[in-house]
Specification:
single chain; alpha/beta; Spore Coat Polysaccharide Biosynthesis Protein SpsA, Chain A; UDP N-Acetylglucosamine Acyltransferase, domain 1; 8-stranded mixed β-sheet; 4-stranded parallel β-sheet
């Protein structure tokens, strides 16, 4: 029997699980160093208990009924090219209403880096955070505006981020910070927190997904400050999405039309088969994430035939609507994702549950929430060194903190790049390229095994390089590889 079925198998057992959870949380609270820390912990855990109980015991968190899923009807998703142009004379007024919020809770561990992911160098020696600050600074300088940057940190990133921010003290950007919540991981077998004290091992805790942004932002010290400044629209995006820049057409549509929420979506490609998609569900807009899809429907979900668009997690949201919905506790029944992880505890490996929510799932609660199908250029995430390879190449140029595609690229799509396990960390990745190859005409690159690239290499078409186990392949400087497959125990020699 699954842990979900165990939890739901009778109200008596449900009450018992809730009671055991309350006891454990009180035990953890008793380890707090002082009353202030204890009260802060218990306030945070009130939100966690709501999430826990809804995830396990509320029938409204049942899996989606696949037969009720329909494509978005006309009007639920509009095309970016159909948005009205923004007259230059309106830009200042629009920017006066804008807040830019970056989700900055992630670490760079997936790429072998320590600390906040936003501190990783991604282009020309600049980090994600450097580029974000420069983009907003350029807006403020060009239009004599005061668009603030807000960072939603996690307990993992707060300390280091605050240290880094001092480097921007002389920049024309006001930067605010707030933290999202910190929740305990749950042992999958016992349904109890693995944490034993308030401070404890950092691995015992997790930030509950970017869906936490609405509550955490509204309840932060800065929310009312921004409203008092006349801000009415917040543009939310992941800090590792280099395509998520301020767009005047989208901002204008938010301000001039009767909508409280815009989700930027874009057309699926072969690289996006796992991305959440916008659907019609019982007459409402709904975000369908892969974690909600029955196992026998995964292939259908990943197909671009039925689900043609996916959520970029670039969101434009009305501040007054956030305040209203949080006050009404409207997000209490947002879909919960059950994220199963493995961890070491007391010398044994156990499975733990992280209950998380996606910010895109909130669309159904906002008035006239819509999707806008935006150009692919607005979705340029860097989740791996394969993505890093693309953005560091001559495919992109840097202009005032924003990456723009090289006009010499013969087709608008981004190449599909798959670098093998030997390239996973940034350190290993950097050691294997003397310089990033010219990929202006590259369509697909797969590299596997012990492979090194010299300088001034050109790649075009489809290139596959596979070094067998125990062998090494060196691509010499100046090589031009177009529609080539290189495999085996091979070393290409300079002529």
């Amino acid at each position: 029997m699954s842990y979900q079925k165990r939890a739901r198998s009778g109200s008596e057992k449900s009450v018992k699980v809730e009671s055991m959870l309350e006891q454990r949380l009180q035990q953890i609270a008793s380890t707090a160093p002082n009353d202030e820390a204890k009260n802060k912990f218990l306030r945070e855990m009130a939100g966690f208990k709501d999430l826990f109980n809804f995830a396990l015991f509320n029938a409204k968190n049942a899996p989606v009924d696949w037969n009720k899923i329909k494509p978005p009807p006309e009007g639920m998703v509009i095309d970016f090219k159909d948005l009205a142009k923004c007259p230059p004379g309106e830009i200042n007024e629009l920017l006066d209403k804008l807040v830019v919020l970056k989700l900055n809770g992630g670490l760079g561990t997936s790429m072998g880096c320590q600390g906040p992911k936003s501190a990783i160098e991604v282009h020309s020696g600049y980090t994600f955070l450097d580029l974000t600050v420069r983009q907003i600074e350029y807006l403020n300088e060009t239009y004599n505006s005061n668009v603030p940057l807000v960072l939603m940190n996690s307990f993992n990133t707060e300390k280091e981020t605050l240290k880094i921010l001092h480097k921007y003290d002389q920049h024309s950007v006001t930067i605010y910070n707030f933290n999202q919540n910190r929740y305990p991981r749950i042992d999958k077998e016992t349904l109890l927190p693995v944490a034993e004290d308030v401070v404890g091992d950092v691995a015992d805790w997790y930030p509950p997904g970017h869906g936490d942004v609405f509550h955490a932002f509204k309840n932060s010290d800065i929310f009312q400050t921004l409203k008092e400044q006349g801000k009415t629209v917040v543009f939310v995006s992941n800090i590792d999405n280099l395509g998520a820049t301020v767009d005047f057409q989208l901002l204008r549509h938010m301000v001039r039309n009767d909508t409280e929420y815009i989700m930027e979506v874009t057309n699926k490609s072969r690289a996006d088969i796992k991305g959440g998609t916008l659907i019609d569900y019982e007459g409402k807009a709904k975000l369908l994430e892969i974690a909600q899809v029955p196992s026998n429907k995964l292939d259908e979900f990943k197909s671009v035939k039925k689900f043609k668009i996916f959520n970029t997690n670039n969101l434009w949201v009305d501040l007054n609507a956030i305040e209203r919905l949080v006050s009404e506790d409207a997000f209490r029944e947002m879909d919960v994702i059950h994220n199963i992880k493995s961890m070491e505890k007391h010398g044994s490996k156990i499975q733990v549950i992280q209950f998380e929510r996606a910010a895109g799932a909130a669309i159904q609660y906002f008035h006239n929430g819509i999707g806008v199908n935006v150009p692919r250029s607005r979705f340029l995430p860097v989740k791996s060194t394969s993505d890093l390879f693309v953005v560091q190449s001559n495919l992109y140029a840097l202009e005032e903190g924003a990456l723009t595609m090289n006009p010499l690229r013969p087709f608008p799509s981004v190449p599909l790049v798959k670098l093998g396990a030997e390239f996973t960390t940034v350190q290993d990745y950097n050691s294997r390229f003397q310089s990033i190859p010219d990929i202006l005409e590259l369509y697909h690159l797969t590299v596997s095994g012990n492979v090194y690239f010299g300088s001034d290499v050109t790649l075009g078409g489809t290139v596959i390089i596979v070094a067998n186990h125990g062998s090494r392949i060196d691509i010499p400087s100046g090589s031009i590889l177009e529609n080539k497959v290189i495999s085996g125990n091979l070393r290409i020699l300079d002529h």
